[in-house]
Amino acid sequence: MSILKPRLSFMQIINMNVGFFGIQYSFGLQQSAVNPIYDFLGAQPDQIPLLNLAGPMTGLLIQPIIGVLSDRTWHPRWGRRKPYFFIGALFCSLCLFIYPFSSTLWMAGGLLWILDAANNTAMEPYRAFIADKLPPSQHASGFLTQSFFTGLGITLANISLFIFQKYIPGKHGAIPYWVFGSFFLGSICSISSVLWSITKTPEIPPTEEELAALRANKKGVLQPFIEIFSAIVDMPKVMWQLSLVYLFQWYALFCYWQNASKSIAQSVWKTSPQANKSLYEEAVGWAGLVNGWYNIITFLSAFGLVYMTKKYSPKKVHIICLFMAGIALLFFPYIENKYLLFVPMTGFGIAWASMMGVPYLMVVNDIPKERYGVYMGIINMMIVIPMILQTTTFGFILSHFLDNDPGKAIAFGGVLLLLACGATMLIKDAKPQDEDVVLQGGGH
User: 442 in a domain, yes or no?
Assistant: First the structure.
């Protein structure tokens, strides 16, 4: 017998998702600061994609396994998902503290593997946590609140890069001190925000029948892999369709993140990391501000998307958002006025809010509740497989077809986002759900 899930107030939904803020601060630093650190340490342009392999590979390996394990976990005191939040956030916090002390390219690359593994351990159960705690009518609020905190966390990460660059001079080896400041702040945010959510949000205990099923589950080293394979075989059609959308969408996003600073340096400052390091540092700071801006738009628009998905359906909203993002990246490399860069990034920010929440609404009602964890992990596989393809193939594409030109790399990403928009049109439209009290703080 299933437990009837109570509707949560707006503040309860906020509290349960605060931990997502710290996790996304870390991802924000990875988007905007890790690649410049590679540049400071002497990486060549066509080495950057391979050095970013850590993110997708750890996501592919860690998230589905954590999903299976958290589905099968229950402790009367620690719960089901929360132990994984805490362990992931703790290691993430330690890695963020150590990361700017990287003295070589391969030390930075190695630490990124540990950091990404920790991030994925913390983030994967968060998607299942929404489905665990909230009734279907509040799923939109839950997933798009995560979009809100995604925008807020990445915004702080990027704005910290811009502000610290202006006020913290000097270097430790090849790494500027302002990079240290951003990573130290991220270390504090990571563990403190997750602890807030853990202490403020009780998990729903399983029924006696569910506990019996948990105890009856087979154990063994290979069992999580067997469960993942079984879930893929049984995967709903809509998830296969979403995988095509994600193939184009996430390949494109990696193209942008890897090349944004260099594209801005090229179009606005007319320089490159090799030509003028001090000007390139200015471009990195401005890229942090630009990325901060699109994430401000993300958290400002997230709750508006709740309304839009209710009124028009998640599919229609995602199509429009992907179209805006594609056009934004096509124009981005050709803008020479640094202030005009904020115009296309406004549309990109709305699209980023959609990317982080709306696709889950297209599939969550087709997922059996006892497999929320593993299927959320499989959705992440759909994210990281395109990233692996990008990190292993894009270096060749960049050097042989795009002249190692960061602007062309970003425009290439824009084309891929328009293809993702077309792939979303193939998904069957689901009826929007009623959610009359999402933002009123309770039921009536």
Answer: no
